[in-house]
Amino acid sequence: MSTILLVEDETTLAETLCYNLEREGYQVRQALDGIQGLEMARNEGADLLILDIMLPRLDGLSVCRILRQESDIPIIMLTARQDEVDRIAGLELGADDYVSKPFSLGELLARVRAILRRTERQPTGDKREILDCGGLRVDARSRRAWRNGVELTLPQKAFDLLTCLMRNRGIALSRDLLLERVWGYDFLGDSRTVDVHIRWLREKIEPEPASPRYIQTVRGVGYRFDTLYVDT
Ligand code: CA
């Protein structure tokens, strides 16, 4: 079942859309302003975003622009004025489509179906996955990582290692398990490989690599991505 995040502050319209999208078999989550929409898109993800432009706290154009730097989640913009249409096109914000208010329900649903059909056909198969923790953010599909909004350049294995640790945060992972997950079963190396890459990774992500906040060493076992001290 596809999940749609609807960011619309007009409650009557939002309720109508929500009701009809759910009737079509979609799971719908709602946000009532731009900040909430951005946070929900980041933290919970969705298969499609329906984003109004005139929103409290943060307008839809800004939400679109910010999200586009971080993810390729499909976005349909709802516009109320012709000049907004021009801005969507002119600013190349990366919205996938737009509908102008007032629009017919049939028109919107047709566009939703078209976009979801298109993204479902994409060969990647796996869903977008954003991992977010204590100022560290990883987008597993586009293979990008950020700390406090600043993009990090991570070597391939360091990225895979970080993704694996964050997916299992709070759990101690043995060196052998990490080798298996990140390097594959047939890798002919020893567990010191993991230590070396952890050291490189810490240099990239830790404010103080010598006293790590994120990746904890678990004596006699391996490593654990810890959220204990970094969650706010
Ligand atoms: Ca609005």
Q: What are the salient characteristics of this protein?
A:
232 residues, alpha/beta, Rossmann fold, Arc Repressor Mutant, subunit A, 5-stranded parallel beta sheet, 4-stranded antiparallel beta sheet, 8 helices, 21% strand, binds calcium ion
Q: Pairing-aware structural class of the strands and helices?
A: alpha/beta
Instruction: Sketch the major β-sheet.
Output: 5 strands, parallel
The Rg value, from CA coordinates, equals 21 Å
Low-confidence stretches: none
| Count of alpha/pi helices | 8
The largest beta-sheet arranges its strands as 2-1-3-4-5
Share in β-strands:
15-25%
The N- to C-terminal Cα distance equals: 32 Å
Q: Indicate the CATH architecture of the largest domain.
A: 3-Layer(aba) Sandwich
CATH topology of the largest domain: Rossmann fold
Order of helices and strands: EHEHEHEHEHEEEEHEHHEE
Mean pLDDT: 85
TL;DR of this structure?
The protein is of the alpha/beta class.
Describe this structure in words.
The chain is of the alpha/beta class and 232 residues long. The chain has two domains: 3-120, Rossmann fold, CATH 3.40.50.2300; 130-225, Orthogonal Bundle (Arc Repressor Mutant, subunit A). It has helices at 11-23, 34-43, 60-70, 82-90, 105-121, 156-167, 175-183, 192-205, and strands spanning 3-7, 27-31, 48-52, 75-79, 97-100, 130-133, 136-139, 144-147, 150-152, 173-174, 215-218, 222-225. The chain has a five-stranded parallel sheet with strand order 2-1-3-4-5, sandwiched between helices. Helix 6 packs across helix 7 (175-183) and helix 6 crosses helix 8 (192-205). It is elongated, with a radius of gyration of 21 Å. Bound molecules: calcium ion (CA). Residues 9-10, 52, 54-55 line the site of calcium ion (CA).
